[in-house]
Amino acid sequence: MTGESIILYNKTEVGTDDFGKPIYTETPVTVENVLIGEPSTEDIINEMNLTGKRLAYTLAIPKGDTHEWRDRTVEFWGERFRTFGMPTQGIEHLIPLDWNKKVKVEVYE
Asked: Which of 85, 107, 105 is nearest to 31 (CA)?
């Protein structure tokens, strides 16, 4: 089983605006071997009820990945999405396959 290549946009603070809020620039980074899963209807409804966000996909991130995934823009299949919530992660050596972290994404327009 092999995952897809996706583009993760890393945020870098480049200054502040007139109100003291940080200004960021986004730099694209390709992340290889990411599994893209479709959530169940129950997962979509539960996420909507709990957070108000519509879960579009769940990404399985390969072991050893050190990127920041919280509140980031990602791109795959020609569409842009936004990650939300805390990524969930398992203990690498206790998980048999190549992926140990899950990230939720919503459509980003």
From this structure: 105
Q: Nearest-CA neighbor of 30 among 83, 81, 89, 75? A: 75
Q: Measured between alpha carbons, how far is 48 from 32 in angstroms, rounded to an integer?
A: 29
Q: How many CB atoms lie within 10 A of CB 21?
A: 8
Contact status, residue 73 vs residue 26, Cβ threshold 8 Å: yes
Q: Which fold has domain 4-107?
A: Thrombin, subunit H (2.40.10)
pLDDT tens digits, the chain, 109 residues: what are they? 789 999 999 999 999 999 999 999 999 999 999 999 999 999 999 999 998 999 999 999 999 999 999 999 999 999 999 999 999 988 888 888 889 999 999 998 6
3-class state of residue 72 by DSSP: coil
Report pTM: 0.87
Q: Strand 22-37 and strand 73-76: pairing?
A: unpaired
Of 79, 88, 86, nearest in space to 107 by CA = 79
